[in-house]
UniProtKB/TrEMBL annotation, chains A, B, C, D:
<comment type="similarity">
    <text>Belongs to the class-V pyridoxal-phosphate-dependent aminotransferase family.</text>
</comment>
<dbReference type="GO" id="GO:0019265">
    <property type="term" value="P:glycine biosynthetic process, by transamination of glyoxylate"/>
</dbReference>
<dbReference type="GO" id="GO:0008453">
    <property type="term" value="F:alanine-glyoxylate transaminase activity"/>
</dbReference>
<dbReference type="InterPro" id="IPR020578">
    <property type="entry name" value="Aminotrans_V_PyrdxlP_BS"/>
</dbReference>
<feature type="binding site">
    <location>
        <position position="342"/>
    </location>
    <ligand>
        <name>substrate</name>
    </ligand>
</feature>
<keyword id="KW-0808">Transferase</keyword>
<dbReference type="Pfam" id="PF00266">
    <property type="entry name" value="Aminotran_5"/>
</dbReference>
<dbReference type="InterPro" id="IPR015424">
    <property type="entry name" value="PyrdxlP-dep_Trfase"/>
</dbReference>
<dbReference type="InterPro" id="IPR015421">
    <property type="entry name" value="PyrdxlP-dep_Trfase_major"/>
</dbReference>
<dbReference type="InterPro" id="IPR015422">
    <property type="entry name" value="PyrdxlP-dep_Trfase_small"/>
</dbReference>
<feature type="domain" description="Aminotransferase class V">
    <location>
        <begin position="51"/>
        <end position="292"/>
    </location>
</feature>
<dbReference type="InterPro" id="IPR000192">
    <property type="entry name" value="Aminotrans_V_dom"/>
</dbReference>
<protein>
    <recommendedName>
        <fullName>Serine--glyoxylate aminotransferase</fullName>
        <ecNumber>2.6.1.45</ecNumber>
    </recommendedName>
</protein>
<dbReference type="GO" id="GO:0050281">
    <property type="term" value="F:L-serine-glyoxylate transaminase activity"/>
</dbReference>
<dbReference type="InterPro" id="IPR024169">
    <property type="entry name" value="SP_NH2Trfase/AEP_transaminase"/>
</dbReference>
<keyword id="KW-0032">Aminotransferase</keyword>
<feature type="modified residue" description="N6-(pyridoxal phosphate)lysine">
    <location>
        <position position="197"/>
    </location>
</feature>
């Protein structure tokens, strides 16, 4: 039986706001009509605000964030180029894997899962690279598998300290639009995101913002590419027309999503993600459990990976949530399979939804045999939310009887 | 800021399932096309199952439950007819008011709010009515204002015990489809419901099921009527065509809603409403509060009216819920304004949604100064739901990593 | 097989614009929330613009136009009141029938179907009514069954010429929002419409605008009423709350519909209806057929009732349209059944849609044996539309290749 | 002003059926839930029926048909491989361009635009290729730019006649699902399509069906690839899970689309496309114009590219259609820009819609100065459709009055 709302707490795809769903429900239209750019051109301009860039160029690919990863690499590097990467979760792992398959020579630093980009080690290796063999430095801003947010500003400082000219690639798929990200200020050259996280859309768009420096590097890039090539796609942000049929429906959704984002305010959204995440973390700690993210500085505001007690299989927690309580939690992936379950808390979300997630997780944990106290996590989060909201009070309105 | 789901816990209109919303999103169609009855005729047949009647005739009015009340009265009674009614909440009050305004002579029994139809008193008065002056007996099956469910089967027994031929009118707006209701078995003559409660649709349909006996009485009824007249509308359930433009969109929604109802099973739905309501009641009692419904026999499975502590204004609880936590609770109406707030728990609902309601209510109560313990209601309900669901276990499925 | 668009050319319900469909696809909400009036209050204000009234009060009933008819009568008149009506089509017939059933004494003038309100005869009878026995005068502005538009301004003149104080009731269901209608200027006291015609919504709202004079008359009205009573509903236009659950979904649709109307401009819409209708009439005349509306002054801009050749059954034309060409035409009703078929041309419509209607009608006529030339009606309408549009040219834009 | 339906007659994206739009309007869901494959696995199985293959493996990429082209090449060939292609329109041109950019050595036969794949020349070159240097033969089944359908069965015969082992690649983007295509019977190794044509969905899916022979070739392919790699994606058709977030919304739409296709019957759809296209061609010839497709054997049933008179600029025709008549026609691309305009007639379409296209085109042509007779094309098409439909008659049904 499937009554009521499904409680979706995976860290993407995220809940789609009603306004966005409505906006996507359109009849089809001619993507070569003279007024088509009235839809598309403002999207490019507005996405730049989300990336916090003024000088970047935005590419919108029909595809996924993975496609945008590939676009970033194949358009600016060459086979055999040396790149500096670090691996501390399933998604940073997959990016390393892609770089290798596309023919890069990856200098990969393995870090314990639960930590993030090793900024000091980056700085050391960049400093050692006197001949400038490293063409690019990669940073996974938010590792979705472990709930770890890395210090991208720190990576920029490491590059600057070493006076190193490498391009800076950032995977912002599960951060951009939810966690503070500043493309220009941090000197990011290629910033990748997707539609299905902070942008609150279905999957289907891989979005890339490219710095002027990266566009220069593109001129030297000789990798084979076609679907993802900048050459074909670059004009889209100035003409509003696409080289192949664009997913018009998603573009209408993107319009609605950006409208919601600017209406709430990007910085307010970032603050809200912190507030909501903090409530979840209060709950986790009230259970007596800990996050996979080892230190507070790594805590992610979009996803919490929660380590279950040693005698519990996290897969049972997740299965209980899904089959008993209509709740989808994220699984532990690869190395942490069975050891963690994840609560995604990003996108179109509010306090009571987070309490529902905690309430459902408590039952799922208890059903799996974990010794967490019923209601304890909910209570801790409630008190946090009450205090936060009370600090921001609107005058009371009394309802009509 | 309006992020995430609005948590709707008023006792109607209820949450609309996605499948129903989708079904209503249709282009317009010709309501006189030869295949139009393929949509409409099965609706009449299927609604009979929801009323649990085989011999009744169903009328679907563009309007509301209030309109169906009026249809019931104006088609089967005459001005000056004496009717037996009871009043113990805002909706039974309004029905009495309508009967009076339509020219009936109402023998009205006022009962304390928190109790239901006074079956024994009904039986006494019916027994006293040797001349059969009482033409109809009215029962509000579920008084939405106080969360009180009455004993309709008992009213039938009272009629039978008195050997009285009066028609039995039942307001089932907030019970039918959610709480056990048996038109034929209980000898109900006019059963009223609306689209926006257990049928999980927007408001817009007043639905009436009429017994053969009531159709006989109709022949003697001389009240002016037109829009709601049986004469014009009666053919619709056999031809599938309507005397004026029907709300086709809602009829498509009704199709989807009935499909959901039969897919889950009406009796399973009734059991689910009990299970969900019981969880809410566990929560209320864990807070140390009590229901407006005075005894367990009156407890409603579709709405709980919760009495706040004496020093608290329930309007503040409701205002907190709405403005701080995006949660809509029902207000106390009329006599109980300020003394109760209501949690509607009917329609398309599941356990975690009820926990969200309790979590939100706890915060709203505490913000209003009530001394309820954070997490206490949630914990009590969680344990009830866990036990109930565990008793019904499906084999576990482990999610893909 | 049901491929592609169904071509809906009945005179209501009309095609729903995509923007309106989207707007109705909402999750349910609390109709007693403090911000609910933000949705509802502007609707009342904006509907007044559609009625072209500044002093009228608007009532929105969950129901249909028929319900609004009943509301108009039962709230302002009394049983036994004499009223002046005329009958020249199925809908004016039904209104007479309602008036009689609600207990009025109807002075009914039967006019040949194909003509409209007999203004001179009205003036004569009003002049003869020295004692002021006539309490109200009724006019069907646009008789949907015959495609006849009457002269409401003329009825006002007749009343004024006779110095008669009777209320003026106007059925504007298939005119308001599409054909010029001026409540205040014409001194209309009760103007009725529904959601499913010019307002481009599904059926489900009966809308009534009431003059100050009619509100005065209301104070003397003693008819039984409840669902449709002004007493309960009157506050809605000032508080934004409804006495029973309003059809929130339709209200959101109404918001979108009004936005479209004001965006196009009401007078532009009226001009467009003339332009589109005129094209259809050019087509009809090119076929060598004639309209049911006997003279040009009666021609309706929302629906054309077309008289088929004597040896043809119009029902076959309609059946051909529906079963062969996925096109819904309106049937001839009652007296003109089999003699006319109707093309509705109102609401969300453009030139090419009208050409599609004509093309489909030509085939349906020819299949039924009518000797109309293939393409002839289309050609005549094309030339009209080309000339009309060319007179209104925008500079050409060339599409991207 | 934008009233009424936009008439979309570009050859893709095509009109989306209401049922498909509804199906896509879903809340988001967990793509790693244990029951997710209940949605996805049947899609793979059912797409095989659309490709008419039993042994093929289907890949569904978030992307476009262009992406599926790239997937086909980069997974089965190697840089420097020689391939045989032909070029006779913008889309076959772009495929050649892609092959070159991905590093293939293209043996390209240029054919006059208006003709199709030169089967005899293919056979000659294959016969000459004694060393088997040609690794693959490419055929654009339906060249959307010129409205030319090629003889894929003939290409197979050419391969067989030459006894040549090359892989056969077919671009079926604008044919599959609308024009007869038989993967297994014709020995096609890589068949490419997209969501936005015969599948009646928005753009966003690139779909590829791969023969067993092509999967063998894949093992020898060493091109860099990641996003489009078979390695990562191959498991999806057996597990139902995707390597990266799938566009769940479109997958729901695909489910609805496939249901519609099988409900109508694929062969019935192919016949309908022929019937509708033939009507359009009757219209074109009645205008005294000719198709870009030089001979009847090349005529496409999904798109007609119509050559305008020498003294007319086709861009004006298209601009007239769009700005005056809310109609989107396809532009002439590249070599035929200004010389042709295109009417797409594929997907969710019926006879009266095609008549609307012709009516609109007639006006647009006349406004541009072309000497075509008003109504002439419509009349010719009407007579064709009438005869075709009459041959298929259902017993008449008469509508309710």
């Amino acid at each position: 039986m499937k009554n009521g709302t499904t409680h979706l707490f995976v860290p993407g795809p995220t809940n789609i706001p009603d306004a966005v769903r409505r906006a996507m429900n359109v009849s089809m239209q001619d993507m070569r009509a003279p007024d088509y750019p009235e839809l598309t051109l403002p999207l490019f301009a507005d996405l730049k605000k989300v990336f916090k860039t003024e000088t970047g160029t935005v590419f919108i690919y029909p595809g996924s964030g993975t496609g945008a990863w590939e676009a970033a690499i194949s358009n600016t590097l060459n086979r055999g180029d040396r790149v500096l990467m670090s691996r501390f979760g399933q998604f940073s792992h997959l990016w390393v894997d892609m770089a290798q398959r596309l023919g890069l020579e990856v200098d990969c630093i393995d870090v314990e899962w639960g930590e993030g980009v090793p900024v000091e080690e980056y700085q050391r290796r960049l400093g050692d690279d006197r001949q400038g063999r490293i063409k690019a430095v990669f940073a996974t801003h938010n590792e979705t598998a472990t709930g770890v947010t890395s210090d991208v500003a720190g990576v920029r400082k490491a590059l600057d300290a070493a006076g190193h000219p490498a391009l800076l690639f950032v995977d912002g798929v599960s951060s951009i639009g939810s966690i503070d990200f500043r493309m220009d200020e941090w000197g990011v050259d290629l910033a990748v995101t997707g539609s299905q996280k902070g942008l609150m859309l279905p999957a289907g768009l891989g979005i890339l913002s490219v710095s002027e420096k990266a566009l220069e590097a593109h001129k030297q890039s000789r990798m084979e590419r076609c679907y993802f090539s900048f050459e074909d796609m670059k004009a889209s942000s100035t003409t509003g027309f696409f080289p192949y049929t664009p997913p018009t429906q998603l573009l209408h959704g993107l319009r609605a999503s950006l409208d919601l984002i600017f209406s709430e305010g990007l910085d307010n959204i970032i603050a809200r993600h912190h507030r909501l995440a903090e409530g979840v973390r209060h709950g986790v700690h009230a259970w007596g459990l800990r996050l996979c993210a080892k230190e507070e500085k790594w805590w992610s505001n979009t996803v919490s990976a929660i380590v279950v007690p040693d005698d519990i299989d996290a897969r049972h927690v997740i299965a209980n949530g899904y089959s008993r309580y209509r709740t989808s939690f994220g699984a532990g992936l690869s190395k942490v399979a069975g050891r963690v379950f994840r609560i995604g808390h990003l996108g179109d979300l509010n306090e009571v939804m987070c309490l529902a997630a905690l309430a459902s997780a408590e039952m799922s944990l208890r059903d799996a045999g974990a010794k967490v106290e019923a209601g304890s996590g909910v209570a801790a989060a409630q008190e946090w939310y009450r205090a936060e909201i009370a600090g921001n009070l609107q005058p009371l309105q009394v309802q009509a009887a």
